[in-house]
Design goal:
The protein is α/β, with parallel strands linked by helices. The protein has seven helices and eight strands; from the N terminus they run H-H-E-E-H-H-E-E-H-E-H-E-E-H-E.
Length: about 200
Amino acid sequence: MTRIVTWGQYRESIGDRSGLFAALVEAWPIETALYPGSYVDLSPSTAIPSVTYVDTDARAAKYFADHARVRGELDGRTRPGAAIQVDFLSSDYTRPLAVTDGSVDLLISLYAGPVSDHCRRYLRRGGWLLANSSHGDASLAALDPTFRLVGVVECRGGRYSLGADGLEAYLVPKRPEAADGDLIRRAGKGIAYTRPAFAYLFQSD
């Protein structure tokens, strides 16, 4: 039997990322988001009106199927206007999703692999990609001329902040020869930077 894993339990291991998404919404007009590899991390819905979560994990599917539990965990934690629509797709994000191309403002890629390689199609023109370099997605986006770095996310003591100053100091490889998309994809991890951040925010052309 597949046991229920809740967002509350997951927060105990990864922390609460709600402040991260609050900072994004305060800075940018984000109304819709797609979160491939989400597992049961509900934090985007505390700030964003419409979020579609995607995962192949049976525990995530069972959790999101319990709408009352999901709503209960969001109760008292959302900003005004957030969590209007909370959807879940039990799908492999590397295959076509039941999502309209060019329909989302924010694509979230946190510890989930090369999300932008497979899900860029769903991002609207001028939309944003939030990525970290754990599995290489931020490193790949940094090499993509159609993405522009517009912010960096720092996390200190469990508190998130979004900055837009001094961006030229970020995403500078310690080893320039490592900044190769094919190498990054084969390794399945990001490259080392002279000044790392928790995550990076890119805007698409």
